[in-house]
Amino acid sequence: MRSAPLSKISEAELSAALAAASERDLAVRNLRGLAKADVHCHALLNCPLATYEAVLGHELMPPPARFHDFGEFGHYLTANLFPATRTVEGMRALLRGGLERMAGEGVVYAEASIDLLMPGHINVPASTVIDIVAEERERIAPRLRFCPEIGVNRRIPPDRLWPTFLAYLDSRVFRGIDLYDDERAGDLRQLQRFFRLARERGLLLKAHAGETCGPERMRETLDILDVDVIQHGIAAVRDPTLVHQLVARKVQLCIGVASNLALGLADSYQSHPIQGLLAAGVEIALGTDDFTVFGVGLCDEIWQLHRAGMPIRDLAKLHLGPPANQLG
Q: Which residue segments constitute the domains of the chain, with CATH numbers given?
């Protein structure tokens, strides 16, 4: 059930797509034609902001270009976006909007999380949420392979999440697990049972770490949860020993550059840690994280990285394509 390794887009394909890199619209249009994978996104924060406005029936205050801190980011979500997720119809519309957006920019493989809090948020059984996810997965299947992930919020007491986790897991709809929210919250040891059972069931194990906290949180995550993938992980660049460990264990980092910039974790595409991590041999894939808030798709991320000076040969080292068995 675990995902096959992601493929890479060749230098020739990237070079052809970015030949007019000084013209953003042309470059992005060309990049849409390349089969891509988005492996770091939250399913209900993946659609255009306009989808939320349609569900709510009114315009929303646009997010700031940069948040002061993670707390301000969370407040924006709670105050502006979460009210749209409180009905079955709203959840389906947001999930569908995100899947359609990705398919529209040439994404043919996506790993996206569905939070364990959703059934309680909507006040429905877990089976209702599972059914919606399964139905949307089948609907989009001719254009995009959607691999849902079990989203675990680290700020919520694990005992509260456990029954819904078992329901999600037993459904066999989900292909991975992802731990997220403020890294400073929660005790990773209390979450070991989630990850151990997910491992026994063959799911891909992911966790956010090294985003707002330092390398030590990444090391704890690797040691305690034994994850396959770290979401973000940019703090590793400050610890050469940890970088060596990531390379040796072939732990992939799924980085959202636009997300990091908006949360003030990096100053620019030119100075982003992705450059140093890639040069050190770390396996890196890209993801859009929360497109609703950050507004940057995969094609834009690739274009911005190249425009910032990343050579084609380095872009081609990124895991940008779908698993090999999804091509052709």
A: 11-326 (3.20.20.140)
